[in-house]
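During the practical work, I worked with a single protein chain and the tokens that describe its fold, as given directly below.
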Amino acid sequence: MIKEFKEFIARGNVMDMAVGIIIGAAFTAIVTSLVADLINPIIGLITGGTDFSSKYFVLSGTAPEGASLQAARDAGANVFAYGAFISAVINFLIIAFVVFLLVKGVNRVKDAASKPKAEEAAAGPTAEELLAQIRDELRARPTV
């Protein structure tokens, strides 16, 4: 069983997946910063200068008037943090769009790499193949 596990880990797909997970984790930090530092301030500007990611309303309990989301949670209030949820949706949409662009780019590279092979196959017989066919036909003809 250990041997099978080693073979499984040594396969290229597992290593590719591990690299993808590590890159994905690093990419998540970039997207989180993009949303928190660039997109949310723009949305806040549109909505009147408010911090969009800290929008919430209290479901039960009490929170100090005008408190931040973290302060309301620290006070023990049960909050409906719709701004944080919308920020997470924005993060997801950005990540999904970037992954779409990456897959589209990889597919374009794969297609470009496979086109020369298809063109070679459609190019027809080589000179050696044509000469061999001519030789065979000449041999097959009855001599007069």
User: Anything to note?
Assistant: The first strand starts at residue 57 and ends at 60. The mean pLDDT is 80.
